Amino acid sequence: TQLHVAAETKPLGKPGTAKLDTDWKDLGFEFRPTKSNLRITYKNGEWGEFEMSEDPYINVHMGATALHYGQACFEGLKAFAHEDGSVHVFRPDENAKRLQSSCERTLMPVLPHDKFIEAINEVVRDNIEYVPPYGSGGALYLRPLLFGSGARIGLQPADEYTFIIMVMPVADYYKGGLSSPVDGILITDFDRAAPRGVGNVKVAGNYAADMLPNMRSKKAGFPIGLYLDAATQSNIEEFSTSNFVGIDSENKKYVTPKSSSVLPSITNKSLMKIAEDEGLTVEARDVLLEELETFDEVMACGTAVVVTPVGSITKLGETDEDTVKYTFGESQEEVGPITRRLYDRVRAIQYGEEEDKNGWLYKI
Ligand code: PLP
Ligand code: COI
Known about the structure:
single chain; alpha+beta; ten-stranded antiparallel β-sheet; 6 helices; 19 strands; about 20% helix; disordered N terminus; binds pyridoxal-5'-phosphate; binds 2-OXO-4-methylpentanoic acid; BCAT_family; transferase; Branched-chain-amino-acid transaminase
């Protein structure tokens, strides 16, 4: 491994100047090597210093609690290049807070807020050439990861932890981005999270639990799956990788589920603010499954998926007659005007084309 303590702040390079094996415009959402990743170790009751590494591998004890007991959590956020070449991270304060809540729930030591922000700054600076250039539609995806790296065999928290931030240039999670709505399926045979479980924090196990339903949905031809609440199966919760938003255009309402087992999405929080600014009434409350038919637009929102229009949601029955397909808007090929407007505005803020009135951007 090539670990070294992070260098003193060097002059910043230019976004979009790294050599990739593909064009910046053809990026998908997949792992891609960059210059470095950042690591911090927690040992003897304290967090150490930053280390930058060029090695994509980590040397972990086979008894690490993350591997056996899922003592692990992660975050996802993005850095954007503006037209003047400056680079800005979207709302890292919020990710710092959510990471802390994930750590608290799984008895991992919290990473101090300032240390998280400094780490973000350091890793983006070092990989600035990999930030997709302004105009490409891409972003540098930052994936902070924190896990128990110390060995235990009895069920108890580790005494050693590792924090890593890996980064990679990405584009849309769903190919086609805003231009083509995706078809959703209602997941009726599995639950994502229990009411008093860990659905409200971003722990690794939530995503392991979703692998099977997620892959089944995709195989059945539905790129996105929607979960219901575990206790009653009557309320909408969220998608595998994103929050649910329904638009009732006639009543100018932005409706999103409020639940103890839904991950509090930073994108959703931002869109709620923009929606209010657009004159919509925001309702964060229980959302009944039957209400699906009242929405003229449905979107999935999150860091990776940004704002993804959902054209339909199918509830498969035993037979064709029992199958219900909820469709949104006049045509499932077209993106609804409110979805488009919210997408355009959040993107404009992220790319520095609209004034950042709420102070959401953190400049590198
Ligand atoms: N819900 C789940 C289950 C997620 O994994 C994510 C992604 O982080 C989101 C919602 C969206 O959250 P955010 O907007 O903070 O990325
Ligand atoms: C993100 O949007 O950053 C996420 O973490 C979702 C991930 C499962 C792709």
